[in-house]
Amino acid sequence: MEITNTDFSRSLNEMTVSLRPFALKLTKDSEDANDLLQETMLKAFTNREKFAEGTNLKAWLYTIMKNTFITNYQRLVRKNTFIDTTDNLHYINSYNTATYNLAYSTFANEDIERAVASIDEAYRVPFIMHFRGFKYHEIADKLRIPIGTVKNRIHIARKELKDKLSIYANN
């Protein structure tokens, strides 16, 4: 004797109590568990002809629920996955990851060296010594000039360099 739709529906309804905890375990959310349970029951009822009478209905429903959950999860992951189909992928966010070569600094260094070389030797020598880490009194002793003169010459050298290298003032 074949099972009727009414009997099958009653059997499904009796199984909801034991399937709900499994749905909660999978989804970790009460509303999602209710949705999963409802979807499982709908699939079971629409596919009732695939159920072989005399087999374990509970195991069949658990399998449907587990497969439904996995399918929904995979669909969600695909939906939230961003796929970029642009042709020029290397341009995306390139302003954040720009790599600068040393050309700019090479030009700047050459300009600085030329500017320093063009300063009168009386100002250039104390300036270079100070730049290399000598203290004012050490420069004064080495060049045999007063410390005030050393400070004045370094100040003048800096001022000349600032004027000669004004192109780099805002960089």
From TrEMBL:
Residues 21-75 form the RNA polymerase sigma-70 region domain. Pfam families: Sigma70_r2, Sigma70_r4_2. The keyword Ribonucleoprotein does not apply. Keywords: Sigma factor, Transcription, Transcription regulation. One of its GO terms (molecular function) is DNA binding. Residues 110-161 form the RNA polymerase sigma factor 70 region 4 type domain. GO terms for biological process: DNA-templated transcription initiation. The keyword Transcription applies. Belongs to the sigma-70 factor family. ECF subfamily. This is RNA polymerase sigma-70 factor, ECF subfamily. It comes from Thermoflexibacter ruber.
